[in-house]
Amino acid sequence: QQEKEDLQGKLKLREHLSQTAGKNEATPAPSKNSDLEMKQLQCKLKNSNNEISKQSTTIKSLKNEVQEKEERVRELQVKISRLERDLNTKRHLIEDLRSRLKANQENEKTSNETLESLERKVKALTEDCSNKKTSIDSLKQRLNVATKEKSQYEQMYHKAKDELEKKNLKLNNLESKMIKTEYAMTELEATASQQLRGLAKQTGQALETVQKKLLLTNDKVEEFMTFVKALTGELQQSVQELRTKIKQAKKMGEVRACKKGLSQESVQLAASILNVSTTDLEEILEVEDDEETAKTKMEFEKDKEWLQYIQKLLETQFPFASSLMDAILEKLNEKKKLVEEYSSLMKHTL
Q1: Contact between residue 153 and residue 342 where contact means Cβ atoms under 8 Å apart
Q2: Measuring CA to CA, which residue among 141, 127, 345, 142 is closest to residue 256?
Q3: For 200, which DSSP code?
Q4: Residue 317's pLDDT is what?
Q5: Which 8-state DSSP code applies to residue 28?
Q6: Could you check whether the bond before residue 319 is cis, i.e. omega within 30 degrees of 0?
Q7: Nearest-angstrom CA–CA distance, 316 and 5
Q8: What are its GO cellular component terms (predicted)?
Q9: DSSP letter at 25?
């Protein structure tokens, strides 16, 4: 604008000079330089006018943008106020849910403590039962005849197979019941979250029913754990008994072979040299070698690892049915092989 005013002043001065030059005829005509300057000044004035018009249009567009942004800011402020209200209501709901969750966690801690104490008692009882069973089985082994043992073990194998199939069916039923209870719990949680405000007075009763269901499911899981532990203990015990019987059958075969190779006179002569009786000599012949003891130790360690693996499977999270089934089938196959080996040994000895 200042340049425009300066140019207009210069133009007015030039016009005044040209007018005065026209009046004074005596003075010479204006030079070409002054005309050129006039033209240049007019061009500059036109350029400045164009720039002023452009700037005015840009100012109008900027004003429109500012108005739009102000409207946008007002809309955003309204939305922010609405969001703040929603956030406050959600905070209140979250605090209420946290307090309820703390109460549920405390109840769960007490139930877990009682469950641990019951598990300890069950372990102690199972250990006592296993010790008593081992003593009874050892007495039965000494009393029973080899021919009767063969038929009994075959019957026991078939019975165990049938019982395992029945128990597998029970296990599948228990798993389906557990899945149903979990599904029911998820449905209860979904309905409770949707109807928190409408069912605020009935939450206490719903929590009591859920706790009862949880206690029932925990009892069922505990029963399943005790069943699996008892089954694995019985399997391991029967496998150990078969191993001891196989060793005894092998020893009997070796002793009979030694007796067949040696005459009665040579046996008595050896006993007189060693200054022992013939029965003591037979016991000396029946002593296990280092390889047999190492083998028994390895078998005992394998059984121990198998029981620890079963315990780990029971302590892990669901699902573990397939791996548990594989482990039990592995032990059953081992028992089957031992039964076949024992029956073949008994055939040869008889």
Answers
A1: yes
A2: 345
A3: S
A4: 63
A5: P
A6: yes
A7: 92
A8: centriole; centrosome
A9: S
